[in-house]
Design brief:
By secondary structure, the chain is α+β, with helices and mostly antiparallel strands. It has 4 helices and 2 strands. The protein has one domain.
């Protein structure tokens, strides 16, 4: 049983199908991709508690890493469903990535290059889902 903390309803039993998990994950990636990508950073927030001034440090996550990690998880979820065409596409992408990552000097260049690679991976995963007719309602013997 998989329960999404964002949509959890207390006291209600919820069993999600594999298809629902993948669709929720696609939604999450879509939402991440619709936001501005920015690096992570720490900021300090000050507040007064009981007449005493206090400060607390918070971390704002790197949205590029959130997007990259979400795509990697979708890749891992769909791995057992890869067809020959997908395996070839992954191999080609991996080879292009290895050849092209040379010469990327700064952290920003490396991060942006990795981000573009993961976007291409996501496109291939989307094509795989299309070939599997994943979004047409029925998938892998499941009824909608």
């Amino acid at each position: 049983m998989f329960e999404d903390a964002e949509s959890y309803v207390s006291g209600k039993e919820s069993n999600l199908s594999f298809r629902e998990i993948v669709l929720m994950h696609l939604r999450k990636i879509t939402l991440l991709a619709c936001c501005e990508f920015r690096g992570g950073y720490t900021f300090e927030k000050q507040y007064i508690s009981g007449g005493i001034s206090r400060s607390e440090n918070f971390y704002q996550p790197d949205t590029r890493e959130l997007y990259i990690n979400a795509i990697e998880m979708l890749h891992d979820l769909l791995l057992p469903l890869f067809d020959k065409k997908m395996k070839e596409a992954i191999e080609k992408l991996d080879n292009e990535y290895k050849e092209s990552k040379e010469g990327k000097e700064s952290k920003v260049e490396k991060k942006n290059f990795r981000l573009e690679y993961k976007r291409k991976l996501f496109q291939q995963l989307s094509l795989l889902l299309n070939r599997l007719k994943y979004l047409e309602g029925k998938s892998f013997g499941e009824e909608v």
